[in-house]
Amino acid sequence: MTLPLFAVYGVSGCGRGVMPLARAQLLRQGIAATQLVFVDDQPKAPMVNGQRVLRYAEFLQAQAGARHAVLAIANSVVREKLAARCAADGVQPWTVAAANVVTMDEVTLGEGAVLSPFVTLTSNIRVGRHFHANLYSYVEHDCVIGDFVTFAPGVQCNGNIVIEDHAYIGTGAVIKQGKPGQPLVIGRGAVVGMGAVVTRDVPPGVTVVGNPAKPFLKG
């Protein structure tokens, strides 16, 4: 029987942070680390942190019963393009989660997520495709997270919040709890700056910073 092959797509800092989680997850499933590789479109070395690095074409050509990839790419637009490429080539999306991630009741998690150490997803949450939740981030009750959303470390996403596709929430940002039936909304492609405290809706495509968070105006 030909064994499956697993990949962390991207060998940058994001990918190197995901690789140990992926390796440990496979080992818990009884799958050897030899079935795990980095994939990168422009590799600079054949090995990184003890794992082989393959070009995407090499990954597709390698002998495998099935191919799985987690997209360790911080840029959500690039992540979406790579997700489409992988789907077209029969590469299955792969979710990687640290062993200490806490997931409570009625959590729906879309395909291809990355959940870093100390992430918590509480109850009655719906999360879209290819979500990145970095170290110590949390999502509280009754939240809806779109596709290709990125949380930097330490994001505090409190209850009754809607975060639309491709939003980026910066390190240490705090999003105030919304109300049942009247959630606080972070619009599609919005950016919440590092340490921002969001107390009201953020329109699509707008960058907000500060406490309370306000639109960032370039000087």
Automatic annotation (TrEMBL):
Gene3D superfamilies: 3.40.50.20, Hexapeptide repeat proteins (2.160.10.10)
The keyword Transferase is annotated on this UniProt entry: yes
Residue ranges the record marks as coiled coil: none
Site (Increases basicity of active site His): D142
GO terms of molecular function: transferase activity
Annotated CDD domains: LbH_AT_putative (cd03360)
Active site: H141 (proton acceptor)
Entry keyword annotation includes Acyltransferase: no
Keywords from the UniProt entry: Transferase
The family this protein is said to belong to: Belongs to the transferase hexapeptide repeat family.
Identification of the protein by name: Acetyltransferase
Organism: Rhodoferax sediminis
